[in-house]
Amino acid sequence: MGHDTTHQTDGASPSSGVDIGTEHVAKVYARAIVEAADAADCRREVIDELTALARDVLPQVPQAAAVFASPKVSIEAKQAIIDRLAAGRLRPTTTHALHVLARHGRLGLLTAVATAAARLADELAGIHEAVFTTAVPLEPAQQAQVAADVQRSLAIALRPTFVVDPTIVGGLMVRVGDTIYDQSVVTSLARLGDRLRQRNISALQTGEYSWQT
User: Fold this and answer.
1) Per-residue pLDDT for 185 more than 90?
2) Which domains occur in the chain, in start order?
């Protein structure tokens, strides 16, 4: 993994979100981690291990999280903690990634790096993050159906997240990247897709379908 040239201290901004500088640094390390994992043919496993460590392990061990983020703790002490956490649990590529973060004073960014790596992996796999905003809460089965309908309408694979906002007009809004679709657009796309599918089926049945492009 390469060296970043920024001079930001360990950890995120004091505000609740991840600031732009932190996000940029996280993406740099995330790309290096994904490339190293691809070289070892274990992309999904490494990302899952980093995500589990950031999301499940560190919140349960606040002392370790504080040590990771502290610039006052030596690199050697941080690496010793990594080795104890990794022993028999983490793949060598994951352990190496943690040691690289430790050497560069970036362990405090572990959650941001894990998130960025997961997003990058999705992008490489052709999966797009989508935020579904609904006027009322949906049951899991309803969420799955709505997500499936929108995926079919947009003809792309989505990783959905659902939020509730009673003030939205139309009952549904979908954000994919920088693009926002309201319910009328999604419905129109679904109807268009249905019409095209029906037309192709009809053409096949009548022998009118042309295989030439």
Assistant:
1) no
2) 20-124 (1.10.520.20), 127-206 (3.40.30)
